[in-house]
Amino acid sequence: MPSPESYRQALERMREADQAHRKAFREIGSWRSGDKKGVAKAKKSLEVFRYESQVLQERYNRPLEEALLWRSRAIDEVIVVLSIDVPSYRSGYRKEDYYRRLKKAALCEEQTSNLKAIALQRWASREYRREDLELGRVMVKLADMEFLNAVEAVPARKGSMVEKHKQRMLEAVLHGRKDLRSQPKSKQGSES
Q1: On the CB side of 183, how many CA atoms lie within 13 Å of its CA?
Q2: Could you tell me if residue 89 is inside a domain?
């Protein structure tokens, strides 16, 4: 498995190629445009994007999917990939799939704590991504009172996106885990 830094760089190259091809296409407006140089530039940038996409698929995604026989080492590699937070073309779909598979996997304590750290990092973010929903579903399985207290301790202004992430997460976990429901409610009631 290539290093996390090389994976991050591949995702960044993919994102840059995607942005360049979208920009070139916006400039010409249509493939049928009379601007021959603009169309050639857009086609060239589309080829670069497709090449970067293929490299990412062959070098990183296929080996991960093959490794998802869910041996402990493969799970560690997937968690490293999930910890790299660079939004690029289709990365949210891949992360969703990995989270969905992790829900079914037997995780050791270190892997569980790494996933909890990823979740806290995502919920401290101001942006919402599609993979956050699946991450929340994984956290329903992994959550404990310590994790819920850590989620509540994430600093957020009232009405901010971070506050909404925290609320969404707490609701999802508490909806799925009856054993954790009574404790946070009593804590929230005493703060009011």
Answers
A1: 14
A2: no
In a domain, 81, yes or no: no
Task: For residue range 16-61, list pLDDT tens digits in order.
Answer: 878 887 887 787 777 677 778 878 888 888 888 888 777 777 776 6
Select from 175, 106, 110 the least CA-distant residue to 136. Answer: 175
- pLDDT in the model for residue 185: 44
**Within a 10 A sphere around the Cβ of 77, how many other Cβ atoms?**
18
pLDDT 10s digits, 98-128: 888 888 888 889 999 999 999 888 888 878 7
Please count the other Cβ atoms lying within 10 Å of the Cβ belonging to residue 71.
11
60 shares a domain with 103: no
Does one domain contain both 15 and 103? no
> Are 123 and 176 found together in one domain?
yes
For residue 30, what are the domain limits?
Answer: 1-67
Residues 137, 115: contact at Cβ < 8 Å? no
| Cα 163 to Cα 39: distance, rounded to the nearest angstrom | 45
> Domain check: are 119 and 189 in the same one?
yes
The reply to whether 125 falls in a domain is yes
Tell whether the torsion through CA atoms of 43, 45, 47 and 53 is positive or negative: negative
